[in-house]
Amino acid sequence: MKKVLLIASLFLTFTGMSFAQTTPKTPAKTTKATKASAATKPATTATTTTKPSTAAGPTKKDGTPDMRYKANKDAAKTPATTHLKKDGTPDKRFKENKTTTPKKTS
User: Fold this and answer.
1) pLDDT value of position 22
2) In the predicted model, what is the mean pLDDT of residues 7-35?
3) Could you tell me the sign of the dihedral formed by the alpha carbons of 52, 57, 58, 60, in that order?
4) CA dist., res. 63 & res. 51, Å (int)
5) Cβ(69)–Cβ(49) below 8 Å
6) What is the DSSP letter of 64?
7) Residue partners of 71: CB distance under 8 A and separation at least 6
8) Which of 62, 69, 78, 86 is most buried per CB count within 10 Å?
């Protein structure tokens, strides 16, 4: 009895997986009305504006610095003005990384 239930459950599983992989077909028929309305609509293009980065050398099409050039590699190697630990968090031993909060006087 266990073997019959196992085979039946596997059969149902594989059947369900085969239906999950197919996509329903959409009709490719177009009428004259839809062709006319598609022809009269102006084409709209989605434009994305990206801010160009201030790279030392040439940039890629998306505005990021092209790291194949030495000028961009040198600019990436220069350390930031803040001192960081190995894990990337600011090092609080330096003055520029300390956050000062005014003390309350009572």
Assistant:
1) 62
2) 73
3) negative
4) 7
5) no
6) S
7) 55, 56, 57, 58
8) 69
- What are 67-95's pLDDT values in tens digits? 898 888 888 877 656 788 889 888 888 88
Residue 66 near residue 60 (C-beta atoms within 8 A): yes
Please name the residue that has the structure tokens 């084409």: 43
- Return d(Cα 1, Cα 44) in angstroms, integer: 63
Quote the pLDDT of residue 62: 92
* Tokens matching residue 70: 């030495």
Assigned token pair, 64: 């990021």
Amino acid occupying residue 32: K
Which residue's structure tokens are 């000028």?
71
d(CA 39, CA 33): 10
